Predict the structure.
Amino acid sequence: MKKLLKDRYFILALAFIAMGCIIVHRLFNLQIVMGDSYLEDSKNRILKERKIPAPRGKILDRTGIPIAVNDQGFILQIYRTGLKSQELNRVLHEVIKILDKNGDEYYTPLEKYLSIYPVNYKTDKETVKKWLADTFGLDEDETPGTALDTFKFLQEYFGIDASYTNEQAFKIMNLRYEILMNNWSFITFNPVTLSDDICRNSVAEIEERHHELMGVTTEVVPVRRYIDANDVAHVLGYVGYIDSEKLEEWKDDGYGSKDIVGMTGIELTAEKILRGTNGRREVELDMNGRLTSILFEEPAVPGNDVVLTIDKRLQEIAMESLARNIEIIRSGANGKDNRGDANAGSVVAIDVNSGKILVMASYPSYDPSVFLPNKANEKDVIKTISQLMNDNENKPLLNRTIQQYYAPGSTFKPLVAIAALEEGVITPYTYIQDNGMEEIGGMKFYCLEYRYGHGPLQLDRALATSCNIYFHKVGVLTTIDKIDKWAKMFGLGEKTGVELPYEKAGNRANRQFKMDTFGEQWWMADTAQAAIGQLYNQFTPLQIANYVATIANGGKRYKPYIIDKVIDHDGNIVSETKPEYEQLPVSEETLAAVKKGMRSVASSVDGTAEKVFRDFPVEVAGKTGTAETGLEAEHSSNALFVCFAPANNPQIAVAVVIERGVWGSYTAPVARDVLAAYFNLYGDGLFKPEDTHNFIP
């Protein structure tokens, strides 16, 4: 024995045996004696990092009226808990009953393929077969033959027993399918969202029954809301789930695949301003996905607020007036010049001394709330959006103020007058003879207002009466090159750079455009047509309004802008837009002569808008415009009106376009409504309908 004890190998063996006994004892104690306790503790030791969504910044009008805000919303989620299929179906059924009772929507992705009452395909059979093959790995000969067979297959696949009605089963399988489509999240113990907006009553009941509804949780999130935003929809825009293109573009800025971002309008162009900084929270969760403790929290930082230059009250009046006057024009259909087909229009109003855009109205409009992310109501949303996108007659999604360009018609004549005066072709007192018809470059041009013409005219009366012959002749004398030079100088046919997406430049009638577009030389008759705002001249309402504002303010061509300032969540001004302008080389004498003629439009006896502004307490300088579209065999001409006021000390410039509005004078009441509201002349700033009728024969 002594010999064995002296054997070092024997001693080492005894040591290993002793250590083994200790380890076995510890394992027995951990797994058998204390196993239940440690298992229970482990359920509360699932560590996760949760994102804290940052509230998006608000969008306000110039007076502080909110247009886009954030409300406290609640999403419904489910965590993986290890429930067997039938028990998971029971939990989902109970949740569905709560949501249905409170009128909450939830995800129904299967409605893309199937409908109930009776069971039918919502799409063609081949699409369904491909979907089943791709999603469930079925071979072609394994795919169900009918819609009912497909329904039964899904019912069996998700283990939904016969105790549920077809309607209940369909609701359950919709949520089961949503979970399946997000399986990776589910198996990695990340929640799967079942509804992105539920009410407080549903939240309360779900939380109250959390022990029975295993894995089902609710979470507070900021939800975008638009307040009476229809009238300003094209400016505001809307948000949506980030698309692949934007994700690729912005991935270095920390955007993820499920982020909500601006899709158009100010929501898009001010995305980086409005977007806040998400917070994060490290937490412990139990097996039901419920929070047991917070280990670390970094709060979210809200996005900055954007204050627009838009005056929401003026915007609403402009939209109401457009709608009302379009209907008045339609009601005056005569089967000749007025075919009763006026249907759309736009209004732009600008502060002439800063470039601030006060009104940017595009009619018809839409409800931007339709586009807010809501997968639960996806089928209705898709239907509504499809209707909006496919309305090719009215184009409600089109921002006509910057995305549609029009021939300016006679609203271009003040520009031609400026070019002629500055180039020394005429003086304000030069007489031009109008005999009712003039042949220029082999084409005959006619005076539209008088059979025998206006006779000899100076600039003042030529603008007041909108005499075409006068400007045909003056345009030819000035030449297209010089007219084009001044049109470009005033920003016509050029993008303004306003802070909105998808702005179009339009066109100017000139030699290069005709050659590039048609491969043809320029002719004298082309100049005659271009000089009255026809031919290839096509400008956006914003360009037209800014050109008139430049006349009004003495030749300062301001850069129009729509974001006034940016404010952080503590109320501090982060940035404020400073007006920028270029002083054009146009003389005071030239501008004075043109302004005099534009005042005559609204005040002289033979002025084309005199009836509209006859008793208006603020002196207005304006210009009507009737623009042919080339479709007059079937449609009425477009109608335009531009103005500024007060004429002797301008503050505001307005441009109005009504598509198929017949005559320029028919659009003047819209401008009057905007001016009346701006100067607070009447209670609501609007004409009475019976008064407005007086201006439309």
Q: What stands out?
A: The first helix runs from residue 2 to 6. Residues 45-74+223-308 form a domain with the Penicillin-binding protein 2a (Domain 2) fold (CATH 3.90.1310.10).
